Amino acid sequence: MHLNRTSFMLWKDVQITGGFWKKRQETNERVTLPAEYEQCVKTGRIESVKCLYHPEEDRHPRKGVFTIDGVLAENLADEKENGEKAVPRPHHYWDSDLAKWIEAASYSLAAHPDQGLEKQIDEIVDDFEKLQMEDGYLNTYYTVVEPGQRWTNVYTMHELYCAGHLMEAACAYYQATGKKKFLEIICRYADCIDRTFGIEDGKIHGYPGHQEIELALVKLYRVTGEKRYLNLARYFIDERGKQPSFFEEEALAHGRDPEEEGPKGILGKSFLPAGPYALFQAHLPVREQKTAEGHAVRVAYMGCAMADLVAETGDESLWNACVVLWKNVTQKRMYLTGGIGAKDGSERFSFDYHLPNESAYQETCASVGMTMWAARMLQIKPDSVYADIMERALYNSVISGVSLAGDTFFYANHLAAKPEMFSDAIITNPRMFPRRQKWFAVSCCPMNLARLLESVGGYIYSESETEFFVHLFIDSVTETVKENTRIQICQETQYPWDNKTRLIVTAQKPVYTSIAVRDPAFSRNTKVLVDGKEAEASLENGYLYLRRMWEGRTEIIVEFEMEPMYVEAHPCVRMDAGKTAIQYGPLIYCLEEADNGPNLSTVFADTAQKLTVKYEPDLLGGVCVVEGKALRACTEDWEGMLYRPIGSRFEEMTFRAVPYYAWSNREPGEMTVWINRVHTRTEE
Amino acid sequence: MHLNRTSFMLWKDVQITGGFWKKRQETNERVTLPAEYEQCVKTGRIESVKCLYHPEEDRHPRKGVFTIDGVLAENLADEKENGEKAVPRPHHYWDSDLAKWIEAASYSLAAHPDQGLEKQIDEIVDDFEKLQMEDGYLNTYYTVVEPGQRWTNVYTMHELYCAGHLMEAACAYYQATGKKKFLEIICRYADCIDRTFGIEDGKIHGYPGHQEIELALVKLYRVTGEKRYLNLARYFIDERGKQPSFFEEEALAHGRDPEEEGPKGILGKSFLPAGPYALFQAHLPVREQKTAEGHAVRVAYMGCAMADLVAETGDESLWNACVVLWKNVTQKRMYLTGGIGAKDGSERFSFDYHLPNESAYQETCASVGMTMWAARMLQIKPDSVYADIMERALYNSVISGVSLAGDTFFYANHLAAKPEMFSDAIITNPRMFPRRQKWFAVSCCPMNLARLLESVGGYIYSESETEFFVHLFIDSVTETVKENTRIQICQETQYPWDNKTRLIVTAQKPVYTSIAVRDPAFSRNTKVLVDGKEAEASLENGYLYLRRMWEGRTEIIVEFEMEPMYVEAHPCVRMDAGKTAIQYGPLIYCLEEADNGPNLSTVFADTAQKLTVKYEPDLLGGVCVVEGKALRACTEDWEGMLYRPIGSRFEEMTFRAVPYYAWSNREPGEMTVWINRVHTRTEE
Fold first, then answer.
1. B329 CA to chain A: closest CA distance, Å?
2. Which of B444, B445, B490, B590 is catalytic?
């Protein structure tokens, strides 16, 4: 097998110059990042690293700084979820929140230097430095709340997960600013972890309960060149799921009953068909896992690390394992919108084809994870099956996670909403509430989204020595060097509101290389024009390859067939059987009550009639709306009946669909992605 | 307003002579009642009244008799639900289980004297007598587990609920055997309750957390003639939901925080839109309740009591309140199968038109309650809207609660099953498991079903002074007296497998009276033949009235139009929109995997083609199966896709539907009541 390794252009080497994503990034920088920082202040996250170090007690952090008063107490209500009492002390995942915010802010800094923002980061970094132990250990929770207990509950306490996010943040901040301090702090911590975990005698033979550090270690390896970070990542992946179970051994070693604590106790022994450790993908070694089980974000992050390791090591068995999991996810367990995780409660995958809409969990973080995973698969094998799903997640389930205004967020992204359905969720489970919220006690999603939005430039282009790939259609500029020749690639497009993109390729001197442009799955007839003339491009794995000598300025125009279309789900997805959804380019659409009135279940799309599309500059920040013909079931003639012999009367109507990502930005109301159909069988 | 009061013929005055219900009753007597008694022994329910009285400590019951060993310990596993530890001591609802079993057994005794069975009852009665306190108080839990705490938690502890079931049991046993002892014990208890609760100073101004005693008090009044029982029932109903809240006052009086205990604490303050006390129908006075809120069984029992009080008092405002609740239930919150309660967890009603199928709760007890409520509405106003729903519940959601063999039970009755869906329910919530179980820790349903099955004769006929009503079509014999003349009514029918019933009316001497036969809603053309000749019968409120002089033997044949038909749900029931279900006579049908293979979501009924019906004597105890034409979506041509542009291929198929009540009596598999349709619009 040929593992064709390519690399994405680094985010800071790609400038987003306008259009759809520029607007999202501007909102992210102007609104989201400051709002998130403010929440970190209000909830004590910033304070958790700032105040805890007590200067007179040198490296003996103060305990109990977080009393229920002042600015912290004020926001305790925000921290309540599921009726739990808020804990006015650093939570065991708070480090990861700060890290993801630093990472997002770093991406922003690279494009837009901002001294105030840089100072905010530097202050946190300074505090991290003070918190760091002599041996490099760096974790707020275990330094403050449970000193002396480090590495005793790697299973559930997110210690290695937080470390991973700190690594990603440090890499980003170093790459953005060139400042080394944070990176050095984090390398000391990575070295400490490397001395602690591994195959050697005297080390802990274990792996994290929540994957993240594995992909972060590969990143750290790539930035520093330190091979031991790569090896440690490989160790964590290879060790995962081996018998006897590390999770059980760890519990026993520290006096916990594995039957009672963790998911075994919480969820019941048979909760997951593959056993309780499947929630953590630790039921089997990764190469033996045939289906994507358990917590969706964990699976995606694990997939990222596995692909990264394949890229670095060429490990074929690991690549095969990646592909098996990827296929199970994307062919049987993924929402139309590219998101994953059908089950709330444990935020996990359900069984094949079980994809409920109103109760869809589809966590924002999991869609971020799908984007990252897809990109990593794509680096190994440039095949549009990966890029199509990367794009699908990005344009739909990722950005649905944040409001157009940028200040409220979805944790769960439902595919249908009936407001009465989760009316109590704001009390019992705010993550499921079908209206974006300012914050969540578990705030992974807003942070994760911010860092992805800010680094989207890093997902547009990749290259090998002899090829340059265009995966996404985003206004941007980048440069590559082929055969010692600089080539500038400048992309201009109105996509996704228009069906073409224009690439200006400017070669410093004549150079032979391949430029391969993705031919998206939705387009069944894509044209390529080079300098105005239709060009022969060879289609390989969903990419249109232009292999030629590039000289001076060349204009490539790629034109997709991009009509709004009705799509259907595999008939075993019983929630969607007999229904249809609307896709236009990469965008999935939905019906909202704001456009179509209430009781969306009474709308039956007439799929025999054509859909039309229209750009509405003043609607939802400027979107294409899609209109179609439908029949609406009359409700007036039921006269108090609830059931009757078939024979409904219908009225003709025109429905209006808006992009899914933009839903819930107007008045609250119903929404549905999947629409009933007048006829199930496609009309000839 | 005219409150036309009629009364049902007492169950013991109607002999079921054959056919559909005779078979069910025989299984009930031969298998179900002994199996339930056995479970009461195994789980300690019988022991709880037998052993607890310690003869040497005169009326000081022993505590702690129920240790985890011997026969009790053996069955603790059966008692575990939701991960709770089994409690090896009488539970606060165990008295009601014994009472319902006695009630069921009593109905059986009337028709089939059985000394062994009578002895079993007498022994329990003897034990109850010993348990009874000097002042008449009789409750095992508060006598044994929490002595001295009686009437301190009427809100949640089912004390009055158990009392109600004891009253119903005592009435039934007295009516069946003529023995007065149990009735006298229970009257002493009722008197004790009457001295304790009421409007007068010094009494508790309160009402039960779980309705039941209200309807039981009316029954006790009817059997004994003691008006104070009727008045107490009226007091409980009138007091319910008044402000300030009795539930809160009771909690405060006994040192409990109303915000933390009971549903307020458990479910969160805003769990129910109408507030936490709506779970108990105590959010508003009953006459101000406009929608059926909260726990479904409680609503049905409350409806029964309200109707009973209307029957006894002619209270028009109470009748209006009954009708308002009834309409909300039957027009917006009832399953096609006549059951109620869409939400698991709190076993409650959801919002209008919210009727999920796979997660339908539709508790068996709630369907029993619907039958009882419908009958009581019918006593006041002979209108087939009530009888149709009584019949719908009886033939569908009531008897689906027990297997054809009679030894396993459903607590929740789903309207669709996908085995993977609740694979973990056997651990986390056995009540939701889509396969009948031998027993439940909370065993209300098996007992409730047994008593209804055994008393079904009491739901066939009712009468006023001048009218005799035939509500159900069941082989049976009864007698009435009109104008001092005895009239025997003998009904012979193959219903529901045949479309007619034959009534032989034999008048001792010529007598003028009305015989009114229900014209069921499913029949759009019902014929009445009297002595072989088509007769003019006037149709009033869904009843065909034959007003005439009856002389000697008269044969009435009523012939329904009874074809299998496709039905639909109100289009606001979004789970059923675009789907259809099959009804044949009173029976709702379903597709099972056993007949149609897996992936029932791939089946699309072609409603333009006729359904056919065929009696299969060897299938499921003898049923009519319904067959229809459908298209089945191909799954072979998807080639790893999960979504694609519309254009599914279909294959023609013939599906086979079986009565819903009979599902899950073969190998486990999928089931669905609601079926996808090829065309939503009915073909002209």
1. 10
2. B444
d(CA A331, CA A290): 13
Active site residue A304: no
Query: DSSP string covering B470-497, please?
Result: E-S--SEEEEEEETTEEEEEEEEE-TTS
Spot the catalytic one: A347, A391, A454, A592.
A347
Collapsing DSSP to helix, strand or coil, B104 comes out as: helix
Q: How many inter-chain contacts (A to B, CB under 8 Å) are there? A: 190
Tell me which of A162, A187, A322, A444 is the catalytic residue: A444
Instruction: Provide the angle, in degrees to the nearest 10, between the axes of the packed helices A33-42 and A94-111.
Output: 150
Q: What is the pLDDT of residues B337-383, one digit of tens each?
A: 999 999 887 899 999 999 999 999 999 999 999 999 999 999 999 99
Q: How confident is the model at residue A263 (pLDDT cuts 50, 70, 90)?
A: low
Among all residues of chain B, which has the CA nearest to that of A683? B647
ipTM comes to 0.94
- pLDDT for B56 equals 42
How far apart are the C-alpha atoms of A197 and A189, rounded to whole Å? 12
- Least Cα distance to B190 among B209, B173, B171 occurs for B171
The closest CB to that of B678, out of A418, A642, A680, belongs to A680
For A435-480, the pLDDT digits (tens) are 999 999 889 999 999 999 999 999 999 999 999 999 999 999 999 9
At position B80, the amino acid (one-letter code) is: K
Rounded Cα distance, B208 and B193, in Å: 12
What is the greatest pairwise CA distance in chain A? 82
**How far is the CA of A119 from the CAs of A421, B6, B382, in angstroms?**
45, 85, 81
Residue A143, classed as helix, strand or coil, is helix
* pTM of model > 0.90: yes
Amino acid at A398: V
Q: What is the 3-state secondary structure (H, E, C) of A327-395?
A: HHHHHHCECCCCCECCECCCCECCCCCCCCCCCCCCCHHHHHHHHHHHHHHHHHCCCHHHHHHHHHHHH
| Of the partner residues B334, B565, B643, the one whose CB lies closest to the CB of residue A569 | B643
Q: Measuring CA to CA, how many Å separate A69 from each of A2, A42, B154?
A: 61, 12, 40
**Per-residue pLDDT band at A423 (split at 50, 70, 90):** confident
Nearest-CA distance A678 → chain B (Å): 5
Give me the average pLDDT of each 10-residue run along chain B (684 residues): 80 97 98 96 84 42 33 35 47 94 97 95 94 92 85 94 98 98 98 98 97 98 98 98 94 86 54 83 97 97 98 96 98 98 90 96 98 97 97 98 98 96 78 92 94 98 96 98 97 98 97 98 97 95 97 98 98 97 98 98 96 98 98 94 95 98 97 95 59
Pairwise CB contact (< 8 Å): B568 & A428? no
Q: Cα–Cα distance between B482 and B547 in angstroms, integer?
A: 13
* DSSP conformation class of A203: S
**What is the token pair recorded at A45?**
């996250």
Burial class, A477, CB count within 10 angstroms (exposed 0-12 / middle 13-18 / buried 19+) = middle
Q: Is B444 a catalytic residue?
A: yes
Q: Which one of B336, B638, B647 has the shortest CB-CB distance to A682?
A: B647
Mutate to test the interface with B, among A259, A260, A601, A638 (most CBs of B within 10 A): A601
**With contact defined as beta carbons under 8 Å apart, do A454 and A19 qualify?**
no
Q: Is the peptide bond before A617 cis (omega within 30 degrees of 0)?
A: no
Task: Please judge whether B336 and A643 are an interchain contact, meaning their C-beta atoms are less than 8 angstroms apart.
Answer: yes
Out of A578, A602, A645, closest to residue B567 by CB: A645
Three-state helix/strand/coil letters over A508-534 = EEEEEEEEEEECCCCCCCCEEEECCEE
For residue B653, what are the CA distances in angstroms to A158, B506, B576, B628, B658?
53, 51, 22, 8, 16
